[in-house]
Amino acid sequence: MSDFGTFFLPGPTEVRRDVLEAMLAPMLPHRGAVFEALFARIQDGLRPIFRTTRPVYVSSSSATGLMEAAIRCAAPGPILSMVNGAFSERFANIALACGRETRVVGGDWHQAVPLDVVESALRERRFSAITVVHSETSTGTLTSLPELAALAHQYGTAVLVDSVTGLGGVKVDTDAWDLDFVLTGSQKALALPPGLAFGVASKRYIDQASQATARGLYFDMVEFEEFVHKNQTPSTPAISLLYATAVQGEHIARETIEARWARHTEMASMTHAWVHALREETGEAFCVYAPEHARSGTVTAVALPTSLKGDDIVKGVAKRGFVIGGGYGKLKSSTFRIGHMGDHTPDRLALCLEATADTIRELLAR
Known about the structure:
Blueprint: H1 17-22, H2 33-50, E1 57-59, H3 63-72, E2 79-83, H4 86-97, E3 102-106, H5 115-124, E4 129-133, E5 135-136, E6 141-142, H6 145-154, E7 158-162, E8 181-185, E9 197-201, H7 203-209, H8 221-228, H9 239-255, H10 257-282, E10 287-288, E11 299-303, H11 310-319, E12 325-326, E13 335-339, H12 346-365
Parallel strand pairs: 2-3, 2-4, 4-7, 7-8
Antiparallel strand pairs: 1-9, 5-6, 8-9, 10-11, 11-13, 12-13
Helix pairs in contact: 2-9, 10-12, 11-12
């Protein structure tokens, strides 16, 4: 069996060997022309992925760092947090930890937060920003962003988007959808090693950020904006990971972002059909946790019958040479997750699904 195409965790995802080998390049001064040329290559790769003409900020941190940055640098005022899973809940908790008055709407992990619920909150008072998780990794639920952004801007509210398991696998059109801040992590659909976060902010957001009095230092997006136009980062960057990013950006450009979206859609459809077939075969209550009209193209959470536990399935699949994810948060025992994202292909996914089905058949037969 090939070494690549066995690791279907919902992040970190598998990384191609040539991307890993790129990190063997020598160190270089990060205040100089050679680094600036490398950074410019990275910008050329990332802008089409975000679908933006704005610069892409590169942070040597996890995506959680840019989640905090999005809050700290938002204009003064309360935050409205849309919660429908563990990571959207984390975004709300970050707002609270940053000392922002925060109102949570939603709370039902089975669906995206309805827009009428959001609008009702916006009518009651003015919020400086809304936080939303585009692709909720804990549930596999996708929130539609164009309608949300249009609604929020009617009320003068910025939209702060965590697209950690979205961007690079699910369509994100930053400029056309008029999103204020979009962030992702390197280790998900971009198929890079962990350790970097990428973000794009609208000019409107950056202008408003100058009013924020608690931006801090390390995640000051006003400073990121100043440095990125010089092909620089404010602080010492993770140079080895930047080499990898430049190589992967060129790989994605050759595939094209549109073809990448289509490949992810195909893998998601395969997985959803597989869950339905498993239910039909076994007569057990297997189902895709996310509602049919709001499913992510990058990760599927599978709800289990009460006779099975997610951890048992994960362990059985590992014995067959594949890695999948257990349930997350309050869904830990009642679901398992398959990350069909990054540089994975439908043919390798089919082998993973076969190994998972064999494991489930074995467990049901006991």
